[in-house]
Design a protein that fits this description.
rod-shaped, about 0% strand, mainly alpha, about 270 residues, single chain
Length: about 270
């Protein structure tokens, strides 16, 4: 992949990430303001002063205050990028089972069936197949190169595999930082909403005479709703981040293992 291609891919990736974040914020604000805040969810038809109707979840969540759409946006961002990462990693694994592909490729290489192995890589596709294809192409060239000794050829093979791997790995881990960031800030934003809700609740208790029961209930409701949304967002993000990093580590291990095996086979067969 050329530098221009990598730059273009990086630019498109940044536009995609920015677009997902902005769209998530806009969608969640619209849902919060015009769907959750609809008068039909509240007694007396007043979203600001009326109580949510019994059992009306949308009305109850709306009472969480302005922090709610922020938390909803974070959760939606986590879901969107989780889907994007899932699709990307699925494509990176290729079409067939990796263990079967690696075993078949190893047999072809041991039998010096380089062209057949290259065709197998084209069928499999994915990150592992791309790295092995680059290594096999270099393998084929170095077999007929009489200007280099054995050690130089082995170093050239290793370098080719390292460069091919370096091109694939950033694609696998891209946008994971967004999920990990959401895991951290979801709890913090939820905590902000919790604190604001408790401030309102204690303000209602501090009034002279009888406490304002409505303000007290709204404050406690706001605190609990924001706490629940913040913890939910953080939990989902942590689970997805750990899942994807595990998948990436497994794929990276297979790439390294296959590359090492290819170099060892080349070293044993080259002169």
């Amino acid at each position: 992949m050329s530098n221009n291609s990598k730059s273009a891919s990086s630019g498109l990736g940044s536009i995609f990430a920015t677009s997902v974040i902005l769209i998530s914020i806009i969608v969640c604000w619209i849902v919060f303001k015009y769907i959750m805040g609809d008068a039909s969810h509240f007694e007396g038809g007043d979203a600001e002063l009326g109580h949510p109707k019994p059992g009306d979840i949308l009305g109850i969540v709306y009472k969480g205050g302005f922090i709610v759409p922020i938390l909803m946006s974070i959760v939606l961002i986590i879901i969107a990028f989780s889907i994007e990462r899932f699709i990307t990693i699925l494509k990176a694994k290729g079409r067939g089972r990796l263990n079967v592909f690696i075993r078949n490729l190893q047999n072809m290489i041991n039998n010096n069936q380089i062209e057949t192995a290259l065709e197998e890589c084209d069928k499999q596709k994915g990150s592992l197949a791309n790295v092995m294809k680059a290594g096999l192409q270099r393998y084929r060239i170095l077999q007929n190169d009489s200007t280099m000794d054995k050690d130089q050829k082995v170093v050239a093979m290793q370098k080719e595999l390292e460069e091919a791997t370096a091109l694939e790995l950033p694609m696998l881990s891209k946008n994971l930082v967004i999920i990990s960031t959401c895991a951290s800030i979801a709890t913090l934003v939820g905590l902000i909403g919790t604190v604001l809700g408790m401030i309102k609740a204690f303000s209602a208790l501090a009034q002279a005479g009888a406490p304002d029961a409505v303000a007290l209930a709204n404050g406690i409701s706001e605190a609990l709703i924001n706490t629940a949304l913040g913890i939910t967002g953080s939990t989902v993000a942590i689970i997805m981040y750990n899942y994807f990093t595990t998948q990436i580590d497994g794929l990276t291990y297979k790439i390294d293992e296959s590359g090492f095996s290819l170099v060892q086979t080349f070293a044993s067969q080259s002169k």
